[in-house]
Structure formats: structure tokens, C-alpha cells
Amino acid sequence: MAVNVLLTVLQIGAGVLTKSQALIADGIHSLSDLVSDFVVLLAGHHARKDADEDHPYGHQRFETAASLVLGLLLLAVGLGMLWSAVGKIQSPEKLEPVHLSALWVAMGALVCKELLFRYMLAVAKRVKSSMLVANAWHARSDAASSLVVGLGIAGNLAGYPILDPIAALIVGLMVARMGWGFTWDALHDLMDRAVDEEEVKAIRQTLLDTPGVKGVHDLKTRKMGDMIVVDAHLEVDGTLTVEAGHDIAVEARDRIMQRHRVLHLMTHLDPWKCPDLDHAPLR
């Protein structure tokens, strides 16, 4: 986070002094990363709160809501950058050559972001954290934006001033695309999107491997932040007592909670090889 603070101040300040719109855009990009870090920390703090009377499933969706807010913020920032860049491109006669120091700042930012990517990726692999891996590759995308900015500034210094706002336009597109992705994913998660098919198959197999479970149907999943809520109908021997069936359901729940990122499992028992009339039309 400290690196992002330093880069943000350096890039925006240098962009203003050297009259490079691309460098200012890259600084705003770094600022958006800084804001996202704070949002992630805030969301993580609230999401870890225990379940209460108003939130019986916990507060995991605070992360999803934070992703939605962050996505909308990034989308607005990206569109603003695009609007500014297009305005500059439409008035090329007003473009001014940038100072050589802008190129050195852009290249310095590129090197810092690439080193940050390599460090974060190494740490993520050591602690085996998929979230840190994703964050590391996000840092690599930041390095790519700095490369674009460096090329735009170099073009400006070579006598093509239009390349600087074009670089700012590309960075704006990257930020807007990122914001749209966050917003779209968060909206789907808030509408109870299911987890991917591979994870559903793994959950189904864990249920089928539970002693006493003869079959599984009507398996449904929905995301709750980084966790999963599962509903499933378990088929058991119809001659079992209620207590025996209950014990099988408890064992299935324990296995699911231990092996998967499942927050809650709701089970319904059905007699094996008997028609399931749960969804039959009411008479």
C-alpha cells in the first residue's frame, strides 16, 4: 500500500509539472488501486463479523457490496479519463510537448510495479493464497498500463504530441473495463449466482461419499461473499429411522464443511428409489 501511495503522488505530481496527461492518467490508475486496497481492508474487517439476529448467515456479502461500490467508482473514473482524453485528441493544436523527466517517472513506475508483482506472486505461492495471486496479477496489469504510458510519452518526445492523450485514452479504457468487470460480477453474486460446475461436482461427490447416502438430487449453490450456501436432497434407505437419517445428514454436513468453503448446508432427506413429490403441483 505504501508503494501505491508513493507512486500515486509521484505520477500525478510529475504529470502536472511535465504536462503529460498520460502520466496523470496512470497516477489516477494507481490512486484507484490505493482506494481498492482500503475498500478490501474495510470489507474484510466487516465480513469477518459473526452472524447475528439480523444477519443469520453472517456478513460475507459485505465483500460483494464493497466490490459493487468499487466497480462503480472505477467505472466512473475510467469514463472521466476517457472524456478528458477524447477532448485532448479532438483539439490537437492545444497539445504541448512533455518534458523528458515524464519518461523517467513512467519508466520508474513500470519497474516498481513489475518488482511489486514478482514479490507479491512469490509471497502468494509461498502461503498458497489464491486471493494474493489474483492481486499480484492485478499489479502486473498496472505495469502494463505504465508501459503504455511510457510509449505515449516517448512518442510525444519524438514529435508526435497526439500519442500522449492516446496513451491516456488506453489507460482510461483499462480502468473502465476493470470497473465494469467488478460491477458485473458483484451484481451476479448479489442475485445468488451459483458457483462453477467443477465446484458443484466436487460438493456432490463429497455428499455421495458419505456413508448412508445413496444418491443426491436438487443440489443448489449460491455465493455468499467468498463462501457458499448449499441446498441438497439426500437419498437414503427408506427403512431407516428418523434418528438414523438425521445422523447421516449430520455426517454429510460435517464432511462438506471440512472439505469445501461452505458456510451452510441445508439438507432434505428422501427415500431412495422412491418418487420425489416435493415439486409436484398442489391439488
Topology:
Layout: H1 2-18, H2 21-47, H3 61-90, H4 100-127, H5 130-157, H6 163-190, H7 197-208, E1 215-224, E2 227-236, H8 242-259, E3 262-271
Parallel strand pairs: 2-3
Antiparallel strand pairs: 1-2
Helix pairs in contact: 1-2, 1-4, 2-3, 2-5, 2-6, 3-6, 4-5, 5-6
CATH homologous superfamily title of the largest domain: Cation efflux protein transmembrane domain
Largest sheet, described in full?
Answer: 3 strands, mixed
**Count of beta strands:** 3
Number of DSSP helical runs: 8
N-to-C SSE series?
HHHHHHHEEHE
In one word, what is the shape?
elongated
Strands ordered across the widest β-sheet: 1-2-3
- Reported by name, the CATH topology of the largest domain is Alpha-lytic protease prodomain-like
How many domains comprise the coordinates?
A: 2
Describe the structure in your own words.
By secondary structure, the protein is mainly alpha-helical. It is about 65% helix and about 10% strand. It contains 8 helices and 3 strands, in the order H-H-H-H-H-H-H-E-E-H-E. Strands 1-2-3 form a 3-stranded mixed beta sheet, covered by helices on one side. Strand 2 (about 225-235), helix 8 (about 240-260) and strand 3 form a beta-alpha-beta unit. The protein starts with a helix and ends in a 12-residue tail after the last strand. The model has no long low-confidence stretch (mean pLDDT about 80).
Put the structure in a nutshell:
The chain has 283 residues and is mainly alpha-helical.
Provide the descriptors you would attach to this structure in a database record:
about 280 residues, Alpha-lytic protease prodomain-like, 2 domains, mainly alpha
